[in-house]
Amino acid sequence: MNCTEASMNALRTAGDELADATVAELFARGEVGTFNTLMRYVSTTGAPLPDGLPAVAREYLHATSVPPAWVDWDEMEKARLFFIDNNVHISTALSFAAMPACYVVPHVAKLLSATHGLKYPSKRMAETGQFTVYLMQPDAFEAGGRFIPAAQKVRLLHASIRHHLIRENRWDVDALGTPICQEDLIGGQMFFSMLVLDSLHRLGIHMSTEGAEAYYYAWRVVGAMLGVDQDAVPTSLDEARAFLDRYMLRHMGPSDEGAELTRQLVDLYEEIVPGTFFDPIVSALIRHLVGDICADWLQVSRTPWDTVVKAVPHLLGVLETIEDRSPFGAWALDRIGHLTAVFELSSLTRGRVMHYAIPEKLKKDYGIPNAVPRTHRWTPPAATVLP
């Protein structure tokens, strides 16, 4: 895949033909409410579709009910084990690197402000965390799994946002391209895969090239399930680096929406962290993972913890040594990691299951266990030298 300015510009005009057509017909027929009500009862793969479901929705759900034929299930199992072994670190990277990276792209921050109430930042974080947990379950793609229905609903959610913003003239298509266009979908895929791997490396986490490649592969599968044009998706980590570098250089910068979304994110996690003594570590982690320039754009405060956080890789190295040398230590740390991730997700969801419903309108108050020894250390592809 050769990533160029011309190819990226072409991706800015493309949406998701299947999902867009489905949403357009649901709105035209006034069937969105019926769809949302009935789909609350469809949360697992293989569950019978309820009577009364609009025909166009039934056709869409049938067409998107199976993963791509090209999926390598051995590779997906490697990705799942990689996730289990690094779940806390991945959750940290998703929360304090991937999400702020979204906010440092002004038009993405503008879109998120337009579609998610700034007073409820936990909703998007909870949806992202829950989606990732569903993906990494052993039965993710089997009968009874929750990932495929979630992916089907998220895809329609994206289409409904495109529908609302364009129909209500709340988006400058000529200047910004199609809302949630193919370039941004792939960019998001890079944030949740490549940028997460970069963050693990920055935290000093030891991982093999095989594990990193498997994790990236799993997000390629996710992209396919979310309607991303596979002909445009980077297939290797080197290609992913080239795409991510060009995407960020094309779009990143400061914005009021990005700063506000980041402030809400920091406030949210400061509420989750017990007490107040450790509150500054939230800002410090964001600054450490996204770098000073991006952190300044997002108006992330500098704190005395900025220096303390730099010692995190050394602490994690000690824990990894314990895990490698002691089977009990490995079990205990994996268990602690699992419980920590569960605690974070339960805090964000407040014990509720997040439903990915099609919004009938945009609310007025909306603004715009690894077998690979840990002596292996995956090295990210070098930064791209762009012409």
Any overview of this molecule?
- The chain is mostly helical.
- The chain has one domain.
- 63% of the residues lie in helices and 0% in strands.
- The chain has helices at residues 5-11, 17-28, 32-39, 55-63, 73-85, 87-103, 106-115, 121-135, 147-167, 173-176, 182-192, 194-202, 209-225, 237-251, 256-272, 280-290, 292-297, 305-309, 312-325, 327-349.
- α7 packs across α15 (256-272) and α11 (182-192) packs antiparallel against α13.
- The longest helix has 23 residues, at 327-349.
- The two termini are 17 Å apart.
Key phrases:
single chain, 387 residues, mainly alpha, 0% strand
Distance between the termini: 17 Å
* SS class: mainly alpha
Shape: globular
SS field, number of helical segments: 20
Radius of gyration: 20 Å
Uncertain regions spanning at least 5 consecutive residues: 314-319, 328-354, 363-374
How do the SSEs run, as a string of H and E?
A: HHHHHHHHHHHHHHHHHHHH
Characterize the biggest β-sheet.
none
Say how many strands there are: 0
Q: Strand fraction band?
A: under 5%
Fraction of residues in H or I helices: 55-70%
Mean pLDDT reading: 80
Number of domains: 1
Topology readout:
Blueprint: H1 5-11, H2 17-28, H3 32-39, H4 55-63, H5 73-85, H6 87-103, H7 106-115, H8 121-135, H9 147-167, H10 173-176, H11 182-192, H12 194-202, H13 209-225, H14 237-251, H15 256-272, H16 280-290, H17 292-297, H18 305-309, H19 312-325, H20 327-349
Helix pairs in contact: 2-9, 5-13, 6-12, 6-15, 6-16, 7-15, 8-20, 11-13, 11-14, 19-20
